[in-house]
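To whoever picks this up:

The nightly regression suite flagged D-alanyl-D-alanine carboxypeptidase as changed. Nothing in the input moved, so I suspect the structure step. Input below, exactly as stored in the fixture:
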Amino acid sequence: MCLTLATGFAAANSKYAGFVIDAKTGKTLYSSSGNSLRYPASLTKMMTLYMVFEAIDSGRISKKTRIRVSKHAASEPPSKLGLRAGQTISVEQAIYALVTKSANDASTAVAEHLSGSESEFARRMTAKARALGMKKTTFRNAHGLPNSRQKTTARDMARLGLALREHFPHHYHYFSTRSFKYGKTRFGNHNRLLGTVTGVDGIKTGYTRASGFNLVSSVRKDGRSIVAVVMGGKSGASRNAHMKKLIARTLPKASKRGGGNLVARVSPDTQIALPKTGPVPKFRDVTEVRVAMAYAKPEKAKTFPIPLDRPVVGREALIDTLKKQKAVVAPMPRPANTVAVVEQGSKQSGSVDGVTTASTGQPSGWVVQIGAAATRQDAEQLLAEAQSKTGGMVAKAQPFTVITHRDGEQLHRARFAGFDGKSHAWKACKALKRKGYGCWATEQ
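Regenerated output under the current build:
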């Protein structure tokens, strides 16, 4: 596929890799060493920004949140803003710094703020990469400075570019930023194709001596759309020239038809740590399995472990919702030779808790499951958040939790009941998925 484009540019250059994908159909328009391992350099910051956008959308942080800079972050080598240990920077300033200046000090500060340490953030970056289908990518830091174990492929970077466009259209405009002023200094975007090549609207450049000059470009023009990747350029100028040729020769071959949405939306739970209270299930990092559960057909979903939840709004919000609805989920009669595991509510003996938790005494009919937690309270919190964010038939559904055991660990499944048949349950699932929740519907 257009392999002649690589001739000359890739000659005697073992670092080179190129890949172009039709963003509407998923068709590969060009590939040269597209699946070969390469160093991402500052293309790494694409994933760092993905994690930031996800944290904003989940409510963990806002654009105004202040990030404190550690000594470790301040000591990162250039490219950097020159942040000092102890000072703070807003999340939005950090976004601009990563997009334009490709600031390593801001990248590390973001990682430490979101995950406590850069190494933990890198672990979550890798888990997110797997969940997005980036099968060969491994991250060891948040900025892309040299690390022999930090590897990716041109194909994987194209997939990440697609994910940023598809999952965060409301944040994607940052990648088109031409310059950013911090203090008294204005930093220009390293991406020189912005404003010089019609249709280019981002995304990111990268360079280290080991990687060569890298670039991921998003292009939308005349109803066509592509994401193109060039890795291992010998100079910024030659990399840019090659990218221009790739765009010129592949964009006309892209389709004007196709729905896009090529990368399935992944719930933010792969990024956020589980509550520290209660046992942590051993399978929490098997993101491929979690994603398979979230998007599998209901009859197959039962064979997969369920996704874990995230810290959300308090239990009181759920109880208030239940009071307004005047809804009580009563346990169903259980079959002989079974034992229902029902947790006592927070009220005194003789009262009925608004949320029933049982292994067998649970509502019948169609139910939807959105996750599981190490504690009952956290499962209830997840349900309350889902109701408040999703509305519609989800707001009218009956929340309940169910105890389950896996590999010796106890979990509390978060479920909704009270749906009028299969179609209503499936519509509820679609609404929940649009809000970022993993979900499956099944009949009990």
